[in-house]
Amino acid sequence: xxxxxxxxxxxxxxxxxxxxxxxxxxxxxxxxxxxxxxxxxxxxxxxxxxxxxxxxxxxxxxxxxxxxxxxxxxxxxxxxxxxxxxxxxxxxxxxxxxxxxxxxxxxxxxxxxxxxxxxxxxxxxxxxxxxxxxxxxxxxxxxxxxxxxx
Length: 150
Ligand SMILES: [Zn+2]
Ligand SMILES: [Zn+2]
Fold this sequence. Notes:
The protein has helices at residues 19-25, 58-72, 96-105, 136-148; strands spanning 28-30, 37-39, 77-83, 88-93, 109-111, 118-119, 130-132. By secondary structure, it is of the alpha+beta class. It has one domain. Helix 1 (19-25) packs antiparallel against helix 4.
């Protein structure tokens, strides 16, 4: 069963890349429903968060879409993007106009079907969500689950 708040069926699915570094250095969206930590740190240089980047599968993209929704305070959409070379990737936008902007700036990319392949039903605020860097003891416990889970 997927978590109703963060859409993951695994509360230890993230962080995927360099989990210790991410948990130590980055503010996490901590799901108030299942406890999953989702990186929501804003990159100082480019002003981007993890969810702003393209992902190589819908499954991975879905793990980050809740942080996009929280940032936008509305429901978001996942689109399948195809490059000229035929490579597929997945990106989150909170409105069709954002997708249009992106395609205008990236002439070598197209969107499959020009419609989203996934979105949640509606945006809901959850009362128990936390935003923080984990304390050392919390981090070790959480990290152990993440690593056991790989
Ligand atoms: Zn991170
Ligand atoms: Zn959750």
